[in-house]
Design goal:
Length: about 300
Amino acid sequence: MRVLITGGTGMIGRALAAKLLQENSNNEVIVLSRNPERIRHSQPGVRYLSWDGRQAQGCRNAIEDLDGVVNLAGESIAAGRWTAARRERIQDSRVNAGRAITEALQNARNKPRVLLQASAVGIYGPRGDEIIDENASPGTDFLSHVAVAWEASTAPVETLGVRRVVVRLGVVLDASGGALPRMVLPFRFFAGGPLGHGRQRFPWIHLADVASALHFLLKHEEAQGVFHLTAPIPPTNAEFAGALGHVLKRPSWLPVPAFALRLLFGEMATVLLDGQNAVPRRLQALGFNFRYGEMEAALRDLLRKESLA
């Protein structure tokens, strides 16, 4: 299998690349990067090519003779406060990359069989305890609009005969990056607890299950359309904090007030204070089995690996 990954130097892209290379030494993984020389030896077995994330010309040659494309490209939403300039970059980085990939595929002589398009369960906006499956309608907030545009950026490839899978990700947990190390920190100082009122749902997933699910969807020809990449039962934020405190052997009763989060993060605090009760119905119906579907077992695995617990 020959797979191209955009945004492949991030946590998810690296995990998927490792999964593909472990599965079969004959698999080939190509990662597009703005600075391939700087990271060329960061993941043995991966071939890095230069791409600006905006122009089809830069990725046109790489798109030929592939089995699959995985589009993860986009600026992090957690890199700082959402100023007007950052909001524009968050959306444009996703939409421009998707449109460039689409144009490159339209001009490719030998098109890949499948394209996996990243998205997020944040597309639904705040929904309380409402159980959300893949048929739910989008919300109306900023992240909803970003996700809708992100998904739409590669929709035209379906008219080319390319199987397209949209993966709406929950909060991806890994001890070496992403949200978990920052969530662990206050517990270290005996100041951990739920965020805000704690009743919002926390749609999480272990990084290993993300890589396995992406690999699963690449290979399963019947997979098409939207799939949630979240653990089967999203806990409340308070339940997640309780499990994290139990694993770390720290108290988990000290809540972080909503106003403090809004003061610290601005509008980005909505990611922490509003959740989605998103369930992976289509992924499970297709036969995918989660290795880490239970919250406390997942936390024990992650924190033990990095000697954080």
